[in-house]
Amino acid sequence: MINKLIEKIQKTQAPIVVGLDPMMKYVPSQIQKAAFAEFGETLEGAAEAIWQYNKGIVDAIYDLVPAVKPQIAMYEQFGIPGLIAFKKTVDYCKEKGLVVIGDIKRGDIGSTSEAYAVGHLGKVSVGANAFYGFDEDFVTVNPYLGSDGVKPFIKVCKEEKKGIFVLVKTSNPSSGEFQDRLVGEKPLYELVGEQVRAWGEECMGDSYSYVGAVVGATYPEQGKLLRKVMPKTFILVPGYGAQGGKGADLVHFFNEDGLGAIINSSRGIIAAFQQEKYAKYGEANYADASRAAVLDMKEDIAGALAAR
Amino acid sequence: MINKLIEKIQKTQAPIVVGLDPMMKYVPSQIQKAAFAEFGETLEGAAEAIWQYNKGIVDAIYDLVPAVKPQIAMYEQFGIPGLIAFKKTVDYCKEKGLVVIGDIKRGDIGSTSEAYAVGHLGKVSVGANAFYGFDEDFVTVNPYLGSDGVKPFIKVCKEEKKGIFVLVKTSNPSSGEFQDRLVGEKPLYELVGEQVRAWGEECMGDSYSYVGAVVGATYPEQGKLLRKVMPKTFILVPGYGAQGGKGADLVHFFNEDGLGAIINSSRGIIAAFQQEKYAKYGEANYADASRAAVLDMKEDIAGALAAR
Question: What is the pTM of this model?
Answer without folding.
Answer: 0.97
